[in-house]
């Protein structure tokens, strides 16, 4: 099998050349970071008043970690490194406490991001004759727009169908002979279960590949989806703080994800001590942006657990691979591809006087889709005694939650004192979903 | 006006038994009872011989409960007794939210409990028609 490259010089760069390039880019990132109010303070405290302090790639360790709370506290402009007129797009994500985070992009930033996505999907064999149906949500969620522009740049025919409306998705797939889709793994299961119900057959579809991401899944799930649709499934990794999709992507080998090291410096750390762990050992992924002007992030703790694979990939690309994400170092839940923190739910419940402060979050799977149930306790002193009031209360809580976490939960009312009381935080979340 | 106690209960095994145990230990006699089910929870509605004490006992045992007004109407204990009462309700625009009843030997008739929005108004309207609407004390003495 001959391997084709989007940009062989970059993708197969020697490790020593890559390190030289990384150092030069890191200096630029530090220089831009010093233009932001947040890093100006943070880096000066660490003794880095100018990019000249970074002499080797190892000097990265002098830079303190950046965490999501830093982004939140810097909202809205504390991490903006360029003149506002040079910003062409923002992506915000909902925060755990109601305060969002924002990433700014210049045209150069978007071009870099798009190129990473184009390179990634090219490595998976997508070519300009392909028809690419993007079933990820468009808008602030980076999964939609990120792949969209990457596939357009490659020259594929892009169908921006966005998420939902399964019947229309299938109709589009049939009518325009879609060969590649981008979706969450759970949505692929949902799609498979609806093909016959909506009067389609697998033979009428032209599907060859699927890029699945936004929620972690196992090798087993990949194989199941590959068998269901008779296609190749490629895993991908990204997070909005690092642009979105295109951070790491599998190549045609389907053997873990190349993390594009011309755009990011990889570190894997022990989440407890912050010390670096060697390749092949699991830890928290820490990333530094190397080609982002508007919002440079230095040593950003992703909270995702993975490891760097020590062996080179047979495809010839020199960018190291990370193992599929095995977990989180915080309590973030992923529900139908949407990131939700228990604290977001807690914040809503605390604002409703008719229910107590105790609550439980239950995650179950209904067919292929996740279901979120939030259980709360009635507050005795404000109990009105009417069923209609109780129904209204349920609806109020549901609407408030929907506004905060985007997804629609089921709300259950329970007797005072009936839910497991304030104990370990983990007890509040009961995840009954089988691992994908 | 007669009183009914609405108790919020989880829809799971043993909850109604718990309520009856609490009331038994407080020496409360249940005169009538109905249950409204709403999936994961329900309302247990109780008419008892001592509502104040019943509420205190239930609250002590962590139940969310509330006293509500209810109309206790005496009807004849024979075929058509309830129909006689209800037949003019649609014309008179009386909407029943919930209802239950029982035959009471002490008054040689049946007592029909109804929950309506404007209880006072409906009570005087029924009294004008010649129906006996029991007071709080009368219900307790049933």
Give a brief outline of the structure.
With 436 residues, chain A is α/β, with parallel strands linked by helices. In chain A, 29% of the residues lie in helices and 24% in strands.
Characterization of this structure:
- The complex is a heterodimer of chains A (436) and B (142).
- Chain A has 436 residues and is of the alpha/beta class.
- In chain A, 29% of the residues lie in helices and 24% in strands.
- Chain A is built from eleven helices and 20 strands.
- Chain A has helices at 8-11, 15-33, 37-45, 68-73, 107-123, 142-154, 166-175, 185-194, 219-229, 342-350, 387-405, and strands at residues 87-93, 101-106, 131-134, 157-159, 180-183, 209-212, 232-239, 244-250, 257-259, 264-269, 283-289, 300-306, 321-322, 327-328, 333-335, 338-340, 355-366, 369-378, 410-414, 429-431.
- Chain A has an eight-stranded mixed β-sheet, with helices on both faces. A four-stranded antiparallel β-sheet of chain A has the order 10-11-12-14. In chain A, strands 19-18-17-20 form a four-stranded mixed β-sheet.
- In chain A, helix 9 (219-229) links the parallel strand 6 (209-212) and strand 7.
- In chain A, helix 5 (107-123) crosses helix 6 and helix 10 (342-350) packs across helix 11 (387-405).
- Chain A is globular.
- The relative contact order of chain A is 0.11.
- The model of chain A has no long low-confidence stretch (mean pLDDT 93).
- Chain B is of the alpha+beta class and 142 residues long.
- Chain B has five helices and seven strands; from the N terminus they run βαββαβαββαβα.
- Chain B has helices at residues 15-25, 51-60, 81-86, 119-128, 136-140, and strands at 2-10, 30-38, 41-48, 65-75, 98-104, 109-115, 132-133.
- In chain B, strands 1, 2, 3, 4, 5, 6 and 7 form a seven-stranded antiparallel β-sheet that branches.
- In chain B, a hairpin with a 2-residue loop joins strand 2 and strand 3 (41-48).
- The mean pLDDT of chain B is 92.
- The A-B interface holds A 378-380, 383-387, 390-391, 412-418 and B 6, 8-10, 15, 36, 38-41, 43, 59, 62-68.
């Amino acid at each position: 099998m001959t391997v084709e490259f989007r940009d062989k010089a970059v993708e197969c760069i020697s490790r020593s050349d890559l390190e030289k390039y990384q150092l030069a880019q890191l200096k630029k990132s530090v220089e831009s970071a010093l233009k932001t109010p947040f890093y100006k303070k943070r880096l000066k405290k660490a003794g880095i008043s100018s990019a000249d302090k970074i002499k080797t790639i190892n000097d990265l360790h002098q830079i303190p970690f950046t965490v999501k709370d830093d982004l939140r506290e810097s909202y809205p402009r504390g991490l903006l490194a360029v003149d506002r007129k040079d910003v062409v797009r923002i992506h915000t994500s909902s925060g755990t406490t109601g305060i969002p985070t924002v990433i700014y992009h210049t045209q150069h930033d978007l071009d870099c991001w798009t190129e990473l996505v184009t390179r990634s999907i090219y490595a998976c064999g997508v070519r300009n004759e392909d028809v690419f149906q993007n079933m990820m949500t468009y808008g602030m969620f980076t999964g939609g727009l990120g792949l969209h522009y990457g596939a357009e740049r490659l020259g594929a025919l892009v169908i921006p169908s966005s998420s939902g409306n399964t019947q229309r998705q299938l109709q589009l797939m049939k009518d325009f002979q879609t060969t590649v889709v981008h979706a969450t793994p759970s949505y692929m299961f949902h799609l498979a279960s609806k093909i016959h119900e909506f009067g389609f057959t697998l033979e009428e579809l032209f599907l060859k590949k699927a890029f699945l991401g936004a929620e972690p899944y196992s090798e087993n799930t990949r194989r199941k989806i590959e068998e269901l649709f008779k296609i190749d499934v490629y895993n991908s990794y990204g997070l909005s703080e690092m642009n979105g999709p295109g951070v790491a992507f599998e190549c045609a080998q389907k053997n873990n994800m190349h993390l594009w090291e011309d755009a990011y410096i990889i570190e894997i750390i022990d989440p407890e001590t912050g010390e670096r762990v060697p390749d092949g050992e699991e830890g928290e992924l820490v990333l530094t942006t190397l080609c982002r002007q508007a919002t440079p992030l230095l040593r950003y703790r992703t909270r995702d657990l993975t490891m760097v694979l020590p062996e080179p990939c047979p495809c010839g690309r020199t960018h190291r691979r990370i193992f599929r994400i095995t977990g989180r170092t915080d309590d973030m839940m992923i529900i139908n591809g949407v990131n939700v923190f228990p604290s977001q739910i807690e914040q809503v419940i605390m604002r409703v006087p008719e229910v107590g402060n105790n609550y439980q979050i239950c995650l179950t799977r209904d067919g292929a889709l996740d279901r979120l149930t939030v259980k709360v306790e009635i507050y005795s002193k404000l109990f009105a005694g009417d069923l209609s009031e109780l129904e209204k209360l349920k609806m109020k809580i549901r609407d408030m939650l929907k506004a905060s976490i985007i997804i629609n939960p089921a709300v259950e009312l329970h007797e005072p004192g009936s839910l497991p009381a304030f104990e370990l935080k983990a007890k509040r979340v009961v995840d009954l979903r089988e691992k994908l | 006006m007669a009183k009914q106690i609405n108790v919020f209960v989880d829809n799971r095994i043993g909850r109604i038994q718990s309520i009856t145990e609490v009331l038994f230990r407080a020496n409360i006699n249940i005169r009538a009872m109905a249950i409204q089910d709403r999936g994961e929870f329900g309302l247990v509605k109780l008419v008892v011989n001592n509502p104040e004490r019943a509420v205190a006992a239930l609250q002590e045992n962590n139940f969310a409960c509330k006293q509500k007004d209810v109309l206790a109407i005496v009807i004849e204990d024979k075929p058509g007794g309830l129909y006689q009462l209800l037949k003019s309700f649609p014309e008179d625009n009386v909407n029943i939210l919930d209802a239950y009843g029982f035959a009471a030997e002490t008054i040689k008739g049946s007592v029909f409990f109804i929950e309506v929005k404007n209880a006072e108004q409906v009570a005087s309207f029924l009294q004008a028609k010649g129906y006996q609407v029991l007071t709080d004390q009368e219900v307790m003495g049933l």
